Give the backbone structure.
Amino acid sequence: MTTRREFIGSLTGGLLAASVAVEAQQPGKVYRIGILTNKASDPVEARLLEAFRLGLRELGWIEGRNILLEFREAEGNYARLPALAADLVRLKVDLILARSSQYVQAAKEATSSIPIVFVVHADPVRTGHVTSLARPGGNITGLANLMSDLAPKLLELLSSAVPVAKQIAVLWNPDTPSHTPALKEVEEAGRTLRMQLQAVGARTAAELEGAFTAMARARAQAVLVLSSPLFLAERQRVAKLATTHRLPSISDLREYVEAGGLMSYGANYEDLFRRGAVYVDRILKGAKPAELPVQQATKFELVINLKTAKALGLTIPPSLLRRADEIIQ
């Protein structure tokens, strides 16, 4: 025989046990990450984003289980970035991944509270996106690819490959915030190397052909391409225009050389995207962006395209070839 008190006690205990079991089965919070990018289907973008996903998986973040990725793509129209960033803010994402300075600027204008992580920022301090590398001081932090510091090095490498070139064009995008300080560094290096530099701007793909025509009119002998989302997306076209105009070229993007450019020296972007996942992990676990120091690139590579050199009638010095991390035949 079971007394009424024993029955109620067993019933209550069973309900409590069931409640605990249900709670244990319920998944935890699913965090939503907004990603500002150009075109996720671009092979280069896809490869970089996969490196980011891999970094997340290594830290226990699984898409659809405890994290969701919300993509907003400019698709070549970078004037859309402010609206895309604002859309992510309306969605109340927990964090925004803004790959470089142009994307960071749009995200910064859209929110001062949602954490923003960049992965290939060329100069976060001089663009005003962080107060300092050691203490960012706001809602923005991430990884820097040091383009402003590398730009003079690119000019030196170009001079080593084409010693006779003294008239150098610099292809830049005035809408890319980090290009302004990078251009100043290149101009300073040009004076040291006694080169005549010509800054030629292109804000859209439609302006690229006119930019190279302007270089030809100015009798440029080579071109330095400052990396930007536009030039990365149009890498094949930029490389072809440089070859058509018989201009040896250099960039900090290896993908530019794979597309037919002559040389590149710069940070390994896949490594930066993978490391970007660490910032996402720490912030989602409670760290404040203002207190997470900006990390700098640690892996750099020199890539040379000998097929392009041959097409330009160039002989790359053996000393430079020995320094190359990769040579495209």
Remarks:
- The chain is about 45% helix and 20% strand.
- The first helix runs from residue 4 to 25.
